[in-house]
Amino acid sequence: METMTGAKALMTAMEKEGVKQVFGLPGGANLPMYDEFARCNIRHILVRHEQSAAHMADGFGRVSRKPGVCFATSGPGATNILTGIATAQADSAPMVAITGQVPVAMIGRDAFQESDIIGMANPCVKYAFQPRTAQEIPSVVKKGFYIAETGRPGPVLIDIPKDVQQNEAPMEFPEIFKIRGYHPYSDPDIVNVERAIDMLLSSQKPVILAGGGTIISSAFAELQAIAETLMLPVVTTFKGKGAFPETHPLSLGPIGMHGHAEANKIMSEADCVLAIGTRFSDRSVGTFEAFEKNLKIIHMDVDPAEIGKNQTTQVAVIGDVKVSLRVMVKLLLQKAIKKTEENEWVKHVKETRAYWRENLKLHPGEMGAAKLLRKLRELLPKESIITTEVGQHQMWASLFYDVIQPGTFFSSTGLGTMGWGFPAAIGAKVARPDVPVVDIAGDGSFSMTENSLATAVLEDIPVIVFLLNNFTLGMVAQWQRTFYDRRMIGVDQGKCPDYVKLAQSYGAQGIRAQSMDELDKAIKDALSSDVATVIDIPIDPEEDVLPFVAPGTSLKDMILPS
Q1: Which of 197, 392, 414, 514 is the most exposed place for a label (fewest CB within 10 A)?
Q2: Cα-flanking dihedrals φ and ψ of residue 164, to 5°?
Q3: Quick check: helix, strand or coil at residue 440?
Q4: How far is the CA of 353 from the CAs of 26, 249, 270, 343, 403, in angstroms?
């Protein structure tokens, strides 16, 4: 048992968890932790704002499926990461956020840069720790990482008072531990899996709905095996986009407010759905009552709290969805069940898919969103990782960027955090430096965290920003055009800043593409660059995202382009 400071124990414990890098910003209350970076093998990646540190850790966690780690100081440093923590919680991303705190004796006395970050964060974390002695730190770190990455992943906060970081104590680093009341693993009930199979086989119009949990559990092969064995069409939630190859004949793409026309149409006609790792968000299903009206629901999820929360479930299969689907595949093999001939439902699905992919009206200009995103897809290797910001560009990506290799598309879906995509892309690139990483952005979102260009340049993290620039807050403007009689208030961003010059001022590459030929060259230049690149693409500010399911309506009530 070695005697060391709490700060050294923190770094040692993180090294034992396999942490290779931390995204963070130092301040008075976490300086003892920062001093230990000089004596450990963990890389520190300096950010320009703590919110971006959390988003980078989030992006890293989603791609690596191991908790990303972010550091912040007390007070405003800690409150700045709250948006990033809430974003990770909403999208079930593994993260460990570590904040400094004022000394124990000063807690509750309104000390300089004191905030009750535990109280603030509790509603949006899986768990929050505040060790009051140095000896607690190894155990707290071990438990924190375990909670963050097991079961339904999520963020964990560890808030460490400054004197606890500085105090010395004999340290023991546990390998075996118990967390009272936390039981993240459960095996699926085989009887319920058999009931699910019987329900699918007895249905006339069955569909698979794959959600974000499918991606989190890497259940890609199992999902494809079920779809192909039973000849089931596959739709996804937006968060589940890319759980199933979107070029597959059975793929219909995402459903929901800005889902594919063919996906929404088939989902509204189905009589049975195998819902995998989804929470049935209002943005995915429209009105809850209309969605389940003529639908039998089989719900597979690792989190029992999701069963029946938003939709009435006929069969519930609780457990890791990869394991549950694997059990289903084995049972189908044992029963020698495999559909090889297309029935009328599958033929109708394929005809619907073909019709809408041919007949959906697109923006007539050369630089319409669909053409731009299809050009990006054409030139990117299939293993490239995509993140998005939040807004029109995000929904255009849902509609027009086909994910070929599962698990390569990530976005802020639950909280819808503008500014998430760019720092998340940096975190994703740290996790996967061997593949291109592209942030599909809009000018409104990118402006919120563009100062992360400094991190990308100084830390040699060459991500690409594919900036669809309509000089406006595009999604808000679309709603104002559609629902508020074109009263355009607070959405015009003007032509400020010049994103090419902005990128260059940080030492990044800035390219403006105003034609498809220029865009082709810009993407190729970005892919071959060893520095971060911003491709600024001016687009029509009047272009809307369509199809569109208005709030309070059902999937069959899509607004289509005319």
Answers
A1: 514
A2: -70, -35
A3: strand
A4: 52, 9, 15, 16, 16
- pLDDT at residue number 215: 97
SS (H, E, C) 82-101: HHHHHHHHHCCCCEEEEEEE
Contact (Cβ atoms closer than 8 angstroms) between residue 545 and residue 478: yes
3-state DSSP assignment of residue 170: strand
Query: By three-state DSSP, how is residue 5 classified?
Result: strand
Q: According to the model, what pLDDT value does residue 46 have?
A: 98
DSSP 544: P
d(CA 365, CA 533): 25
What value does the CA radius of gyration of the chain take, rounded to a whole number of Å?
A: 24
94, 154 contact by CB (below 8 A): yes
Measured between alpha carbons, how far is 550 from 257 in angstroms, rounded to an integer?
A: 7
Predicted pLDDT of residue 542:
95
Residue 335: per-residue pLDDT? 87
The answer to whether 459 touches 427, Cβ cutoff 8 Å, is no
Instruction: Say how far apart CA 400 and CA 388 lie, in whole Å.
Output: 13
- What residues are labeled active site? 50, 112-113, 162, 475
Residue 255: closest CA among 456, 555, 19, 507 = 555
CA distance 73 to 508: 28
Phi/psi of residue 276, nearest 5 degrees: -115, 115
Alpha carbon distance 507, 238 (integer Å): 34
Q: Report the length, in residues, of the chain.
A: 562
d(CA 218, CA 321): 9
**150 Cα distance to chain centroid:** 17
Amino acid 248: pLDDT: 96
Q: Which of 562, 529, 561 is nearest to 548 (CA)?
A: 561
In a 13 Å sphere around the CA of 37, the CA atoms on its Cβ side amount to 17
Residues 499 and 534: beta-carbon distance below 8 Å: yes
Residue 144 in tokens: 């924190």
Taking 70 as the pLDDT cut, the residues of the chain under it are none
Query: How many Å apart are CA 81 and CA 97, to the nearest integer?
Result: 8
Q: What angle do CA 463, 426, 516 make, to 5 degrees?
A: 30
Domains (ranges, CATH) in the chain?
Answer: 2-171 (3.40.50.970), 190-358 (3.40.50.1220), 361-546 (3.40.50.970)
- Tell me which residue of 472, 453, 445, 476 sits closest to 532, measured CA to CA: 453
| End-to-end C-alpha distance for the chain, whole angstroms | 73
